[in-house]
Specification:
332 residues, alpha/beta, 8 strands
């Protein structure tokens, strides 16, 4: 962190103290890595999947701050002035553009040199979310809406689906880019970051193999969720995701025509489960499941880990997701 960086983030009223702050910043930077007195790299992560990468790759060399507290729906995050100010003091920032508009804006204004947008490290796609007889994972015409005018998954203006972390292969691509960024921000520990990245990529590759094997022999290929978060996962393993309400995880009602579509779909594709998630209300999923005469279960988009999560970290919750999908799809 440079003296200039410190100056840019303090009001003019205390500019007289800038020289003192500058000396403190310089003394912190002269440690083995990062801008903290304990020599750790000060990394800010936008929400849990980014925090997981930072901790797995950085291990003892990093101090990670997650902008999204456990139990908070990341899409709705608003940042406090203190969080915005502390963002500018980071040695490195990991975020995923298109998930949290408040974070995207604050990161652009932070002036932090070592910033990585996970969305730039793998190829994003558009995933529609409506029953319309077309390819359900890519049935959108580039506007965030499919050709019937239904709203697709449109967190970002360009309509790209940001949920790349739910595909272990894409998440491994992101991990490699994060490893490079941490090494650039803290060259003294470059070898450790490289080794930790390799270990994590192997872990994610193993997870991918588990999903491939676990979903090979299945009776049905279609699953219904409340929130269209699993487009990349569906595409990777030859499944079709149908979301009740598409983009909005908090939506509370379903149109009559959508309900009819879902009833037909459930019958045609032998759907026996409607999935809901841990951070939002299960009410709509339970109502739909009752109407369809099917069960409910949890499929977790892993946007945060709480006591309700079926596992302590990303890999464990993904394994729980696999078990839930196997059960729902009749996979052996």
């Amino acid at each position: 962190m440079s003296v200039m960086n410190v100056r840019r983030h303090i009001p003019t009223a205390v500019i007289a103290g800038a020289s003192v702050l500058g000396m403190l910043a310089l003394s912190a930077c002269s440690d083995s890595g990062g801008g903290r007195s304990d020599g750790k790299l000060n990394v800010t992560a936008s929400f849990y999947p980014m925090e997981f990468l930072a901790k797995e790759i950085g291990k003892d060399h990093v101090q990670v701050t997650d902008l999204t507290k456990p139990g908070t729906e990341p899409h709705d995050l608003e940042l406090s002035p203190r969080q915005i100010a502390s963002l500018g003091e980071s040695d490195a920032i990991l975020y995923l553009k298109g998930v949290q508009p408040a974070v995207d804006k604050a990161v652009q204004q932070s002036g932090v040199k070592h910033t990585v947008d996970a969305a730039s490290l793998t190829q994003l796609k558009k995933h529609g979310a409506e029953v319309d007889g077309h390819d359900h994972t890519t049935g959108d015409n580039g506007t965030g809406h499919d050709e019937h005018g239904h709203e697709g998954h449109d967190h970002e203006a360009d309509g790209n689906d940001p949920h790349i972390w739910l595909d272990p292969v894409k998440f491994a691509q992101v991990a490699k880019g994060v490893g490079k960024t941490l090494a650039e921000a803290d060259p003294a520990h470059q070898a450790d970051y490289a080794r930790n990245t390799d270990d994590l990529v192997k872990k994610l590759n193993d997870l991918n193999k588990k999903f491939e094997a676990g979903l090979k022999n299945k009776k049905s290929d279609t699953f219904i969720t409340t929130h269209a978060a699993f487009g990349y996962l569906a595409e990777r393993y030859g499944l079709t995701e149908e979301a009740i309400s598409g983009i909005d995880p908090e939506a509370s009602d379903v149109s009559g025509s959508r309900m009819k579509d879902l009833q037909k779909l459930a019958k045609d594709h032998h759907v026996n489960t409607v999935f809901f998630e841990t951070l939002t209300s299960p009410a709509m999923a339970k109502t739909l499941a009752k109407d369809l005469g099917v069960k409910t279960d949890v499929l977790d988009p892993i946007e945060g880990i709480t006591e309700k999560s079926q596992g302590k970290d990303y890999v464990q919750v993904m394994e729980s997701n696999l078990a839930a999908l196997q059960k729902a799809l009749g996979a052996k």
